[in-house]
Amino acid sequence: MRGPADRTAKGWLFLIPAAPPREEGGAEPEPIEGTLTTKPPICHPCAELAVRHCPHLAAPLYVRSRKPRVWGVFGGFVTPSPTGALVNSADTYMPYGDREAAPWFLASQLALELTRCT
Fold first, then answer.
1. Torsion of CA 23, 28, 32, 36, to 10 degrees
2. What are φ and ψ of residue 106, in 5° steps?
């Protein structure tokens, strides 16, 4: 454990929660290519340990990304109300370069886009 992130010719190893099961006649599951994540790449022994102990990873996807790229940040908007109190929004992703929204966005995590996935 505590090894470097697992990397092969197919890319870096990422562990992401699986999409909810598709209902009969429902929409196709979201494609993995372009998925945003706040989790770093992981070594294989730690991935197996996380799956055994984390309830949020009940049926995760093991994804290899040959070209993960820094995309933006994850956090929430904090805006003043008419009374001067600060109002928080639901957490969301914001891409780098959004000059209008950036002054009101409180980032808490770096966001990566997983590209060239298998």
1. -70
2. -105, 105
- DSSP E strands, the chain: 7-8, 11-16, 36-37, 61-65, 69-80, 86-88, 92-95, 105-113
Quote the DSSP letter at residue 106.
E
Return the C-alpha torsion angle 35, 50, 13, 58, nearest 10: -50
Task: Collect all residues with Cβ–Cβ distance below 8 Å to 54 and sequence separation of at least 6.
Answer: none
The sheet that has 61-65: what strands, in order across it? 7-8, 11-16, 61-65
Per-residue pLDDT tens, the chain, 118 aa: give them: 577 999 999 999 999 887 666 666 555 556 789 999 999 999 988 888 888 898 878 778 899 999 999 999 999 999 888 998 988 889 999 999 988 888 889 999 999 999 999 8
Of 62, 67, 61, 60, the closest CA to residue 11 belongs to 67
- Give every CB contact of residue 80 below 8 A, 6+ residues apart in sequence: 86, 87
